[in-house]
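User: Hey, quick favor. My workstation is busy. Could you predict this chain's structure for me?
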Amino acid sequence: QSSLVMVPINEFGTEAQKQKYLPKLASGEWIGCFGLTEPNHGSDPGAMITRARSVDGGYSLTGSKMWITNSPIADVFVVWAKDDEGDIRGFVLEKGWKGLSAPAIHGKVGLR
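Assistant: No problem, here it is.
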C-alpha cells in the first residue's frame, strides 16, 4: 500500500518531499495510505467532492474519504481533492495534523 503513496510523491513531489518521505516509506519505518475513495462517490475521481481551497501559505482541504487501507496506522497520507479550478491534485499529509482523522472501521469483512 505504501507504494501507492510513493509513486505520486516520486513523480510529482518537490525535492524536499522526496527527501523527507521516500526513504522512510521505502524502509517501512513509515506507513503510507492513498486517500481517493469517498463515502458517496466511490473511487471515481470525476465525482469527487473533496475540495482543496487555496489559502495563504498553501491549501485547506475539506471532505471525507472512506475505505482507505492502512489509514488508521498510516504516518503519511496522499489525499486527492479538486482545487478551485476543478483540477484533481494530490496532497501529502501527516498523522497528527490538525483536522486529519483516520478512525478504524470494524466489521467490514465480506465473507459470512
